[in-house]
Design brief:
The chain is an alpha/beta fold. The protein is 39% helix and 27% strand. The protein contains six helices and six strands. Strands 1, 2, 3, 4, 5 and 6 form a six-stranded mixed sheet that branches. Strand 5 and strand 6 form a beta hairpin. The radius of gyration is 19 Å and the shape is globular.
């Protein structure tokens, strides 16, 4: 195991920001250990580091959805398709690959599109990948609510629950998502929209 005291001291402001957002200290320590190992172990193949980065980013997105379920989304559960967060993480890493600072220069704005007919987006969280780096690009990730199913069954499941009014039992996400990339350092570079 690699000691992280230099990294921890260098980014104590960043760590306190993560603690303020509700991350556990053990989670923060494991993240720091992972990234420090990636930088220190030159023999690790690029694929191994990319796979680990993909896993870490997928967990970060799952944590974002978990934190948002009670506060922003007002539901007891968020049902996420099995490979959704990994596909999103892979696409985020792909879009970050051509940037000057890579993923470290990314600001990720996570949103949820509620009911496709209304096109109303609810902001879940704004994630700064590395607060010690000036952001070079912004990604807006839009998850989409799956409004499918039988309306009468959905209404039946809401009736008589122990949840307060306006509080849903479960919110189901569709397998599709939208990523919008905006470069922050160039006025001539356009916006890239990817629908997956």
């Amino acid at each position: 195991m690699v000691a992280t005291s230099t990294l921890t001291n260098k980014n104590s402001e960043c760590i306190s920001e993560f603690i303020d957002r509700g991350y556990e200290q053990s989670c923060i320590d494991s993240e720091l250990d992972f990234w420090e190992r990636c930088l220190a172990e030159q023999y690790l193949g690029v694929e191994v580091c990319e796979e680990r980065a993909c896993q870490q980013l997928a967990r970060l997105l799952e944590g974002c959805l978990s934190r948002a379920k009670a506060n922003t989304l007002q539901c007891a559960q968020v049902l996420v398709p099995e490979t959704l967060t990994r596909r999103v993480a892979r696409d985020v890493l792909r879009l970050a690959a051509g940037e000057p600072c890579g993923l470290r220069g990314c600001v990720l704005d996570v949103r949820l599109e509620l009911e496709e007919r209304q096109r109303r987006c609810e902001r879940l969280e704004r994630l700064v990948c590395d607060s010690s780096v000036v952001p070079t690009f912004e990604l807006t990730l839009v998850f989409k609510q799956d409004g499918g199913g039988w309306p009468s069954l959905r209404d039946f499941l809401r009736i008589g629950t122990c949840f307060p009014p306006g509080f849903r039992r479960a919110l189901k996400l569709r397998p599709g998502f939208r990523l919008v990339k905006k470069k922050l350092y160039s006025s001539v570079a356009g916006t890239v929209v990817e629908e997956c």
